[in-house]
Here is the input.
Amino acid sequence: MLMFSKINGSNRFYMSVLLCLYSAFSGAVTTVIELDKSVYAVVNDTELKIDEFNQALRNEVKKKYYHGKIPEGAIEKIQLEIAKKILANILYIQEGKKRGYKPEKKWVDDNLEITLEKYKKQYGQSEKWNEYKEKFVTGYKSHLESINIVDQINRSFEVATEPAETELRQYYENNKDKFTTPERLHVSVILLGVEPSSPIEKWDDAMDKGRDIYRQLQEGAKFEDMARQFSSDSASAKNGGDMGYLHKGMLSLKSQEILNELKINEISKPEKLLEGVAIFRLIDRKIPVLNDINTVKTQLIGLWKRNKEEQNKKILTDSLWQSSKIRINSRYFDKNNLDKLQY
Here is the structure.
């Protein structure tokens, strides 16, 4: 049994040497070869069917893009993410069995009951459900047991001990960006909303209106009055265009670039954004501030533990990849992406 949270630096090096030797003599390798069309991959002695892979892919696409158009290239990226996740989970399940992990019966039974109750409400009156129920229970219970084994592996990465002050200080010094309150900008806006799909005439009209508003502002009109009268951003318009303090990441890249060029109380020229034509005013700019270590202690401990857990996970996952024989079907996977699979 590998207890990675207790491994020190020298032992990690020793383990990596052993794993390399084991891989060299056991034939452990990840390859992309042609397999039967029903199989996506074979991990040691476990087959991953293409139907299972495609179902996981559909679920992920639906979760990420349920209400929107799928961006170009996104499917390929998700396929790679799903392959990486599923193959790792198969390795975890195999490792769990080697460690003697058993599915936690109460967790499996409780989750099975919740799902069956939901299905009963939805399909209970159907004769087909009664015919299909027994087969569904068998398959879904096995699925839950696998999920639970993976969860037990993930829980084994958890760090129970508290870090020493020297470790906390070192993590704080090496990751000051995580404990820094970012630059904040106090911003007002006048947005002349235009649907992205609108004809060019609509955009031209909005830009002409924006230029007229900008001219009036330069001649002394109050930004607050113009925002209340013309801005389509209802949340800020009622406050005279005031959006409050915003930090990096809350605005679009183009909006951020416009504001970066403004001085305090300066007003931007009208600019075309995705949502329409916007005029910004920069009211105030607060510089980034590094928070004292004592004021972020709880956050610091949590991040330190999460970092250690990720290290533990990577050590185990790397060792399992290196000591396993993984074959991926060339019908479904580009061999040029092989190096992107490992952690």
Observations:
- Strands lie at 30-33, 39-43, 46-49, 180-181, 184-193, 242-247, 271-273, 276-286, 289-290, 326-329.
